[in-house]
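Sample entry (228 residues):
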Amino acid sequence: MHRVLVVDDEPQIVRALVINLKARKYEVDAAHDGATALRLAADRHPDVVVLDLGLPDMDGVDVIRGIRGWTRIPILVLSARQTSDEKVEALDAGADDYVTKPFGMDELLARLRAAVRRAEPAAGMPEDAGVIETADFSVDLAAKKVHREGRDVRLTPTEWHLLEVLVRNTGRLVSQKQLLKEVWGPSYGTETNYLRVYMAQLRRKLETDPSHPRHFVTEPGMGYRFEK
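Predicted structure, serialized as tokens:
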């Protein structure tokens, strides 16, 4: 059974989410402000967080950064903010997905399920998945770990999933649409800003010179390619 932390200062939204999530056998905690959300995240260790950005005591982006300081649990933003810059800011802070208000409950639950799946160990992982070595870092596909300069690199579930898809297709172009569908789910295909943000994050964490990437290559208008 998965535990969900719902963070929103609108009681009717919290009530609707709690009812729908409990009906689907989720355990649910609720917070109406950022401070309570951070405390519950630390105390209850949810499997996924559904987070509104417009909180009474702090900006939701600061809550994302606070959670990302110690855990990789998926964070699904639920917000009335609809501009591209605001979405990118939340994704850049470490959110895994973004749903704008007003929202459809079925779509939100589908995105929540996808976020939880991305965080779980991959089923049927081949035993010979092995370790991919580059000049700058190594990727252990079986252990789901990345090492650089002798240390583990902390990746969010979405960052890892994107990296895994690219690494498993080393040397091959992976289209934008394919990446979106494999990492975020079949209902995605046009959210190229997600790819731009997460590729930038992978480059910052793994490339020696992120502005001139050696391993995560962009094919303009088509997709991305991983090179060892």
